[in-house]
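Side project, low priority. Logging it here so it doesn't get lost.
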Amino acid sequence: MYGGQAVIEGVMMRSPRFFSIACRRRSDQQIVVKLEPVEQIVPPFLAFLRKPFLRGTLALIDAMAMGIKALTYSANIQMEDETGAASAPEDRKAASAANLALGEGVAERDGIRPARHGSAPLAPAAAAKAAAPQSINGIAIGATTVISLLLGYALFWVIPGALTDQILPHHHATQHAWRLQIGGSLIEGAIRLVVFFVYLALIARLAHVQRVFEYHGAEHKAINTLEAGQDLTLDNVRAASRIHPRCGTNFIFIVLTTAIFVFTIIPRHAISEGVGPALTSVLLRLLLLPVVAGVSFEILKFAGSHRDKAWAQAMIAPGLWTQYITTRVPDDSQLEVSIASLKSVWDKEHESGPASKSSDAEPAAEVA
């Protein structure tokens, strides 16, 4: 029920009812932690969306919304350092006092400063300095997210499909359409996997991406330590594995392979001879993505709950191997950030009493 995500110089962690974002300031190397309750995105009349094979799409939407919020906050923290918006000690003191008075932050201890929440009143000087950079960051990250989704869909779904349509011959007899559908789906899946691994290999060479991958490894180490029933000490977390079966990387790999089977229902023979074949192909893949996500999420949950079984290990092994690309060995300072974030939600979760079994926070919390 605990999961997370790497952000800019930090880690976001989530429990069933709360999430926290811990970041390290570059200016003073202090860890800043922001703790908030998880917002329920499903109204009661849509509770059926939490059912198996439907909750996968819900989990993706939920994780994306929370991920954008976490990235925006971490970007704002680093922007404050660059603009000097948080450099005045009196401003930090006023902001910390406001958070503690409202009960929104975490107590300042062991070098962890309370976060400055949007609802907490900043000192006038700090508010004037921080408002413009944070507004710009929010717009920039929102625009980047939209562009990234469009480019991602084009790169991983449209292009492999278009290349497959070009490779396949266009003069098949209708009675052999099923061969075209199965063969086309296998070819498209192979192209998609090649594109995926080439993409990972290329971005892994970027210095700032490597830094995020290190925090990704720190997040996994903290989660693995917690799930092993060990104390969240630096020594225990350092010794833990940076590979986790519920990782988003593993989920992506399952999605890519599941799509091979789901896309066999695409009528490639009809598309190749119909009107507007390219647009039809794009729309069909888009409509089938919720099906792919729903099936993949159930596979991920099932394999994760049976991770000690040999067959489950074999099922998720390719996704686990891929994590050696998307995670890096973190240093102790990064491990401290992941520990601070996880401790924050763990303490708040248990301070608030037992979680409700009907919580719809489960889907996204399952992805580490």
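Brief comment: Residues 158-203+243-326 form one domain.
Revisit when time allows.
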